[in-house]
Structures are given as structure tokens and as C-alpha cells.
Amino acid sequence: MTSSNAAEPVPATLRVRELMTAGLLSHAIGVLCDLGVPDILDAPRTHEDIAKEVDAHPEGLLSFLRAAAAAGVLAEPAPRTFELTELGQVLRADDPRSIKAMCSLTCRDEFSRTWSDSLHTARTGEPSFAIGHGASFFDYMGSNREFASLFDRAMQSSAAVDNLLAGYDFSGAGHVVDVGGGRGTMLAAVLKRYPTLRGTLVDLPHVVGNARKTFVDAGVADRVTLVPGSFFEPVPEGGDVYLLSRVIGNWNDEDSLRILRTVRTAMRPDSELVVVGMMPSENDRTHYPQQLDLYMFALLGARLRSYAEYQDLFAQVNMRAVDWSNYPDSESVLRARVL
Ligand SMILES: C[S@@+](CC[C@H](N)C(=O)[O-])C[C@H]1O[C@@H](n2cnc3c(N)ncnc32)[C@H](O)[C@@H]1O
């Protein structure tokens, strides 16, 4: 959010007010996504017309539409008439870059409550999620299927899969073990790209239990083994490649080292570990990695790590990072080997 009049400096009080109400803006965008407003904006429409189609109150909806227009995801080409801008296209479910599910997820009570309790994180260094929910984030997901399902859909709406396919060549591998692989979207995409590759998906029982359909839909189910379990317990041996995608970034150093030791134990000397995740770098053009670092810390007590910090982590488990493909503002792909 920036002021449009560059000639006159924005008073500090106004600028800080903008920052303090930025959370309202994210909720306004989340509400519009939940209502499906971006999905029906193929052409400019009046607020009354939009409200009728998405079953909302016209005057109530108007404030949300105007907040989104002030932020540039909608435009108001005529009074009370709105259209989707180029920026706002990514809020549509049918856009290939869609982050609609991520916007809905970010505005859920579970997150709002965590941010409200985050003074606890600042004072103690502990995550705040459990204060309002009585369980850690992943335990909570185990007993809240609707939230878990939205989380899975949000996870799919990122460049992680594309970055992995562009940044790592699986053609020399026969078997990939995806540890903490969620419902298998990433593994399914990899198996689809490499038709002779076999895959094993490891994740918590409630997650793996819902993964079969992903592989059936992708037409690769005959090449997949589903393994319910925890990466704090032994994981299957025999993989040429072990994948940890957006996993290590969810845990503090102590737990991350436990996960890496588990995986290292399963690896052969010639296996490779591939880590996919946000790794802040000097190439990042937005504040997003910094915000995500705060997000992960308040939610999970975890830190984003740079490539150099990953190297330090690997050194503690007798592994070494071999190289990485850095994707600015997005998930990078790191290769590591056993020493
Ligand atoms: C952020 S998601 C990433 C999913 C997937 N790898 C991806 O990149 O889309 C983290 C995953 O770690 C899984 N997870 C959390 N605790 C786990 C544990 N103890 N053992 C195995 N998986 C776990 C979660 O269920 C979730 O699927």
C-alpha cells in the first residue's frame, strides 16, 4: 500500500496508519476470495450486480470492493463499478498462478488468533499457535479436516512444483522418497514428468490417508507406495532421491536436525537429498520472505534459513549442500549429499 501523490510526502501518522490497517486489507481480499468475487469478474460489474451473484449485501460488499481497489487488485473504472486488474487475476480459482486458497487460508481464525497471541512469541520465543488451539499446528490439522484440506490446497498454489521440475533433473533416479510430502501433489507431478520413476510418499497417517486420489487423478498410482508415518521415526530406505519440500523450514534447528538424521540414515552413500523451500537471498525483490519468517516463527517457532544456514545445518549431520537453484521471492531447490 503506497500513497499515489509522490509530490507531497505522506505524513508519518498516515503512513503508519496504513501499515496498521494492512491486516484489514488482507482480510478484505480474503473475504472477496471466499465469496468468489474475483471468479465472476470477467468484465466490469456494479457492486449490486456482484453482490446479487455472490449472495452478499450490496452496501456491506462495497467497502470490501473499495479496499481491494485502493490496493490495486480491483479497479473502479466508474463509481460503484469494479473490475479485476492484472494483479488481481491471481485471485481467480481458474488462473494457473492462482493463490486464492492461500488468501483464504491466511485469513482463517486459526491464523488471526495466532497473530493476536504473538506477543507471547516476542516475549518467550515460543510459537503462539497452541495458546488459542491447545495443540501444535500439525497436531491441530490432524483433527480439523476442513482446515487441513484448505491448507493442502494453499500449499499447491505456489511455484514450488515448477521450481523443483526446473531446478532438479530426476532422469538418473529410479526411486524418489518424498518425506512430509503432504497429499502428494508434488510427487505426482514429478512422476508424471518422469514415466519410469517410482515414488514413495511419507507423511502423517491422516494426510497419507487422503493422498491416493492425487496419484489416481495424475495417472501414476501404480508407481507409488504410500507410507503413513513420522519423519521423527525411521523412513523407508532405498531411495535414489529423498525429497524434503517445505518441511525443514517448518521446524527449529533441533527438530530439523532430527529430521535430517532420520533421512540421512535411510540414504545410501550415493543418494541425494533435495530440499525445496524459501531461502532468503539478496536476489529477493519483495518483503515477502521477511514477512514469512515472522509468520513461520509465530506459527511454528521456525526460521527461514539462507543457503549458508542450510550448509551449517547439514554440516552437523555429516552432510553437505552441493548446490542450489535460487528462485527469488519463491521456493529454492537445494541438493545435498552424505559426506
Ligand atoms: C508445509 S507441508 C509441505 C507438504 C509438501 N511437501 C509440499 O511441499 O507441498 C508440511 C508437511 O509436513 C507434514 N508433517 C508434519 N509433521 C510430520 C511428521 N512428524 N512426519 C511426517 N510428516 C509430517 C505435514 O503433514 C505436511 O504435509
Percent strand? 15-25%
- Describe the main β-sheet briefly: 7 strands, mixed
Instruction: Tell me what the CATH architecture of the largest domain is.
Output: 3-Layer(aba) Sandwich
Morphology call: globular
Small ligands present:
S-adenosylmethionine
What does this structure look like?
The chain is of the alpha/beta class. It folds into three domains: 12-103, Arc Repressor Mutant, subunit A (Orthogonal Bundle), CATH 1.10.10; 104-154, no CATH class; 159-282 and 300-338, Vaccinia Virus protein VP39 (Rossmann fold, 3-Layer(aba) Sandwich), CATH 3.40.50.150. It has helices at 12-20, 22-35, 37-40, 47-54, 58-71, 100-106, 109-116, 119-124, 129-133, 137-142, 145-156, 160-167, 185-193, 205-208, 212-218, 253-266, 288-300, 307-315, and strands spanning 45-46, 74-78, 81-84, 175-179, 198-203, 224-228, 241-245, 272-278, 319-325, 331-338. The strands form two sheets. It has a seven-stranded mixed β-sheet. Strands 1-3-2 form a three-stranded antiparallel β-sheet. The chain is globular, with a radius of gyration of 22 Å. It binds S-adenosylmethionine.
List the helices and strands and how they pair.
Elements: H1 12-20, H2 22-35, H3 37-40, E1 45-46, H4 47-54, H5 58-71, E2 74-78, E3 81-84, H6 100-106, H7 109-116, H8 119-124, H9 129-133, H10 137-142, H11 145-156, H12 160-167, E4 175-179, H13 185-193, E5 198-203, H14 205-208, H15 212-218, E6 224-228, E7 241-245, H16 253-266, E8 272-278, H17 288-300, H18 307-315, E9 319-325, E10 331-338
Parallel strand pairs: 4-5, 4-7, 5-6, 7-8
Antiparallel strand pairs: 1-3, 2-3, 8-10, 9-10
Helix pairs in contact: 2-5, 2-6, 4-5, 6-11
Bound molecules: S-adenosylmethionine.
Residues 138, 155, 160, 180-182, 186, 203-204, 207, 230-232, 245-247, 250 line the site of S-adenosylmethionine.
